[in-house]
Structure formats: C-alpha cells, structure tokens
Amino acid sequence: MTGPRSHAEDAKSAEKRRLDEALEEGLEETFPGSDPVNVTQPPPSKQDHHVKRKD
C-alpha cells in the first residue's frame, strides 16, 4: 500500500493526462493522415493579433 500523494505528483499526473488527451484528440482529428501530430501551437504571427486563442 502506498502513502498519500504529494501535490506535485498530482499536478504532474494531471499535466500528463491533459497532454495524453490532447495527443489522442489530435490523432483522432487527423486520422488518416501522413503528417505527424503536433500538440503545441506556434506563437501567433503579427497578422494574428486579432485572433483569440484558448490556452
């Protein structure tokens, strides 16, 4: 039996779960495809100053 988790372990686990879900969603959205999935987005360009992005 293991002891209680620390807050840092819970945060790390939550971040890994969030990235795994984002990767899975990206795979589902692009299947079938030939390009690899990119979970991160590039920074906005000067022309994108009016576009609001979700974090």
Number of helices: 1
Strand content: under 5%
Order of helices and strands: H
Rg over CA atoms: 17 Å
Give the averaged pLDDT, no decimals.
Answer: 77
Would you mind describing this structure in some detail?
The chain has 55 residues and is mostly helical. Helix content is 44%, strand content 0%. Residues 1-55 are annotated as: Disordered. Residues 1-21 have a biased composition (Basic and acidic residues).
Summarize the structure.
The protein has 1 helix and no strands.
Which helices and strands occur, and which strands form pairs?
Layout: H1 7-30
Biased composition (Basic and acidic residues): 1-21
Region (Disordered): 1-55
Key features of this structure:
44% helix, 55 residues, mainly alpha, 0% strand
